[in-house]
């Protein structure tokens, strides 16, 4: 499974509509409205790189109101449990 984080800039007046449209795209599992330098963050989970290109280039970028995207491809995922175990390595009780 390939996971990507897509940072989305959108026209300010259309952010809610953009978020809803991006949520409806197959492969997009979550969309967050955020503070900071971008307006929305979408989590994309697909099986192959070609699918990712289809989701981002052929779908997200073509949603009316999207002005720019930046895609970050995840190498490895860490959960809070994984992080607790990593920080505990080498520590004796």
Automatic annotation (TrEMBL):
Q: Could you tell me which InterPro entries the record lists for this protein?
A: Dimeric_a/b-barrel, Tscrpt_reg_AsnC/Lrp_C
Question: Which stretches make up the Transcription regulator AsnC/Lrp ligand binding domain?
Answer: 6-76
Quote the protein name from its UniProt record. Answer: AsnC family transcriptional regulator
| Source organism of this protein record | Myceligenerans xiligouense
């Amino acid at each position: 499974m390939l996971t990507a984080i897509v940072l989305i800039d959108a026209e300010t007046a259309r952010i809610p509509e953009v978020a809803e449209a991006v949520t409806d795209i197959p492969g997009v599992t979550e969309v967050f409205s955020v503070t900071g330098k971008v307006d929305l963050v979408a989590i994309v989970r697909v099986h192959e790189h070609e699918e990712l290109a289809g989701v981002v280039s052929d779908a997200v970028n073509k949603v009316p109101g999207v002005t720019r995207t930046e895609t970050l491809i995840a190498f490895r995922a860490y959960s809070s449990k994984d992080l607790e175990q990593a920080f505990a390595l080498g520590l004796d009780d």
